[in-house]
Design a protein that fits this description.
174 residues, alpha+beta, four-stranded antiparallel β-sheet, 5 helices, 4 strands, globular
């Protein structure tokens, strides 16, 4: 089978990671995959903010949990060894779509390198809240940006889950 199609079909969301850090070369490869994603009108108004300090990742998780009124001891964003925040200019009406394409490229790149990944989307609706925006500012995310999604990355702590069956959702019109 085509290697790209096989990578797409075998990728799974991984929700448990080891403590082993990601090789910086591999992290750069993952980010490069995101940079080559399509963006509406080629504007590329996104920014990919990378956290590899688990303390900073945990602080962000606690702030998100508190904002969403969840138990901070249970909301950990799966304790990844790296977290990529994909943000885009709030005035770009395609910002979420552009970030989605970039994140998908990153997930596929991570999988091709033997790493696990999972999408986290809790920030998208709370970026401007008082308990969140100062943290985003401290991470260098521009004030005119919204975080549309995050990629939690790391070495899988176990086997990938089995794929769910695919539904018959393709409809051809002739």
């Amino acid at each position: 089978m085509n290697q790209i199609l096989e990578n797409i079909k075998s990728r799974r969301s991984i929700r448990a990671f080891t403590d082993e850090p990601i090789d910086p070369v591999d992290l750069d490869r993952i980010l490069e995959a995101g940079l080559w994603a399509p963006s509406a009108r080629g504007l590329q108004t996104w920014q990919f903010t990378v956290l590899t300090d688990r303390t900073r990742i945990s602080e962000l998780a606690v702030a998100i949990a508190e904002q969403l009124q969840r138990d901070p001891s249970r909301y950990t964003m799966y304790e990844p060894t790296a977290l990529i925040l994909a943000s885009n200019d709030r005035e770009n009406h395609n910002g979420m779509l552009d970030c989605s394409c970039a994140l998908q490229n990153m997930f596929l790149a991570a999988h091709s390198l033997g790493l696990g990944s999972v999408w986290i989307n809790q920030l998208r609706g709370i970026c401007d809240e008082a308990g969140i925006r100062p943290i985003l500012d401290s991470l260098g995310i521009p004030p005119n940006h919204l975080v549309w999604g995050m990629a939690a990355l790391g070495h899988p702590a176990g086997p990938a889950p089995e794929p769910p069956p695919r539904k018959g959702v393709v409809h051809y019109v002739k």
